[in-house]
Prior knowledge:
By secondary structure, the protein is of the alpha+beta class. The protein has two domains: 5-103 and 244-263, no CATH class; 108-242, Aminopeptidase, CATH 3.40.630.30. Helix content is 32%, strand content 30%. It has helices spanning 5-18, 59-70, 86-94, 110-114, 130-135, 143-153, 199-213, 230-235, 257-263, and strands at 23-27, 30-34, 45-47, 77-80, 97-109, 122-125, 159-166, 169-179, 182-190, 218-224, 239-249. An eight-stranded mixed beta sheet has the order 4-11-5-10-9-8-7-6. Strands 1-2-3 form a three-stranded antiparallel beta sheet, sandwiched between helices. Strand 8 (169-179) and strand 9 (182-190) form a beta hairpin. It is globular and about 55 Å long. The termini are far apart.
Amino acid sequence: MSLAAEDVEAIERATLDAVPPQAMATVGGWLLGLDHGTVGRAHSAVPLSHETADVADASVVRAIMARYAREGLSAVFRVPARAAFDPVRAELARCGWVAGKPTRTFTGTADAMRRLGSHAGVELMAQPDDGWRAVFLGEGFDPVDGASRVQILGRARHAVFACVRENGRTVAAGMGSYSQGWASVHGMRTLASHRGRGMAGGILAALAGEAGARGIERVFLQVEAGNPAQALYRRAGFEEAWDYAYWSVAVAEPLCAPSWQASAP
């Protein structure tokens, strides 16, 4: 799928519509999620353009650090794997930040997702229920991270929550968000004992049907580079749009800390 420059901004704004942080701010062409939870996308700064020169200027790094410091937070940066952001990466490294958690942004179409398989047996809800939440706290998932994700995803205002139940127990879950002209997929989880049975594909097909009902055809998702679920997403017609990494502080006393405190707006 060909992306226009404005699609990058729409995708990043739609991302924070789906995983709403406690607060947001903008600094120098970057959108900042200000949140105390564990979800990286809700607690990180991301550029709204991959082309504008000032967005990749190293001077924006300290301004963003200062803004996070005002909230009592350490800044986290989602930096696209593009050469234009080399100055940002160099400044982050100089200040004691390191890259981790490589992640891919995929784009696709609701039509291709619908063709993935049947969504019979998938239930869609306007709000998550206790069964949907329980999947994130089940065996094989970090309970602290799961609780944070449940809380943050539950704040989304343009979302539907999908689940598959067996014998009254919720065994698979996902969420679709619909805003900024895009549908997006989040929170895909299947209990370990029920994987390999097509439940995730059914959830994707159901979320695609909801996108069609809302007149939205373009879809995106973000997934860690090592996640085997990428095979499913590729079968659903998704193609890689861009990669990024999370840059976070790696030392107890960041080298640039005095400058944040002196220049905080």
